[in-house]
Design goal:
The chain has 184 residues and is mainly β. Helices cover 14% and strands 42% of the residues.
Length: 184
């Protein structure tokens, strides 16, 4: 039969646990920093690669090499090195599927992260990635290592002033195909 702690000991343990939990969050009058919105750029959120880019106009599945989709863009924010900075670690999670025309089990797929303020792109970085489909699998899900970003903030400008955009770095033909299939 389990032994019960005497009532005063239980109260001391409870008070200690509550004190420890209270120290986990921000101190009084502090709020967690406002993170930038992280979202896929709709024109570049999907990848459909064909054997011959001129075939893309016909969209014959037998000529499809690879498809991809951005699944998520997780981000964690915190204070920067000083009060005028916001730090964010951003990752990209994608899903890739081999098409019937793919030769071999490897593909190079460039991804990008961009930072925008309103309609203006402030910075963009392309990350070339090499993927190997394991034997017997025609679909893989992959998450990037976090990319560390630092945003300038002030009393009048929070992290909400920025947007982090992610996508596949598409060829002109792939981009045109995505735009042609855009929801109306």
């Amino acid at each position: 039969m389990p032994r019960r702690l005497p009532r005063p000991a239980t109260q001391i343990l409870l008070a200690t646990a509550l004190a420890l939990l209270a120290s986990c969050g921000p101190s009084q009058d502090e709020f967690a920093p406002v993170c930038p919105v992280a979202s896929p750029l709709w024109q570049a959120a999907d990848l459909v690669r064909y054997r011959d880019e001129s075939v893309a106009a016909h969209e014959d599945v037998r000529d499809m090499i690879l498809t991809g989709h951005i699944v998520a863009i997780p981000a964690k924010c915190g204070p920067g090195d000083n009060k005028n900075q916001l730090a964010a670690d951003v990752s990209i999670t994608i899903q890739l599927t081999r098409g019937p025309a793919m030769q071999g089990r490897e593909a190079d797929v460039p991804l990008f992260l961009a930072v925008a303020e309103g309609d203006q792109i402030l910075d963009k970085k392309v990350f070339p990635q090499h993927f190997v489909f394991p034997t017997g699998l025609d679909q893989v899900t992959w998450s990037s290592d976090p990319v560390h970003l630092v945003f300038p903030i002030s009393a009048t400008k929070s992290g909400a002033a920025y947007t982090v955009l992610a996508g596949f770095q598409l060829t002109p033909a792939e981009l045109a195909l995505n735009r042609a299939h855009a929801p109306q």
